[in-house]
Amino acid sequence: MAIRTLGNTADRLEILDRLGKIEPCSQRRWGRMTAHQAMVHLADSFRVTIGEKPASQARIRVTPIPLPRDFVKWVAMDLPLPWPRGVRTRPEVDQEKGGTRPQTFAADLQELQRLVERFTRRPKDFEYQSHPVFGVMSEAEWQRWGYLHMDHHLRQFGE
Measuring CA to CA, which residue among 152, 117, 146, 142 is closest to residue 33? Predict the structure, then answer.
């Protein structure tokens, strides 16, 4: 099974096609976000990645014992498992807290598409920031993360 990544043109086009099928009325299968909030959350997450928006570092407490970042990153990025549902996001990318407030769905969707294109454009015009949970990541890891994060929220809305 091939590793899916936004750095792969076919994978990126597949994600963007699925993204285009999301509508403001798309019903969530889990979580609290609306489809519109999810689009803006994804855009904010890319803004954090490219340094346009700051985000606080997370403490990893999924068990009573703190887990090493590299282990959590390996589980999330390399194991062929869907990401768990209901994990709280950083407040800076939570649209009900410190995240960007949704405006119009069409404009916010277009902005997310623009950010995906910028995130995957080569040569890149930004430096990757440290991920709030996984820490420092390589370009390949960031491209993998981008695919997995978008896939997670697209599945949340049936795509």
Answer: 152
Neighbours of 64 (CB within 10 A): 5
Kindly state whether residue 38 falls inside one of the protein's structural domains.
yes
Confidence class for position 59, pLDDT limits 50, 70, 90: low
- Supply the range of the domain harboring residue 14: 9-57+77-156
Domain count, the chain: 1
Say what the pTM is: 0.90
CA atoms of 150 and 143, how far apart (whole Å): 11
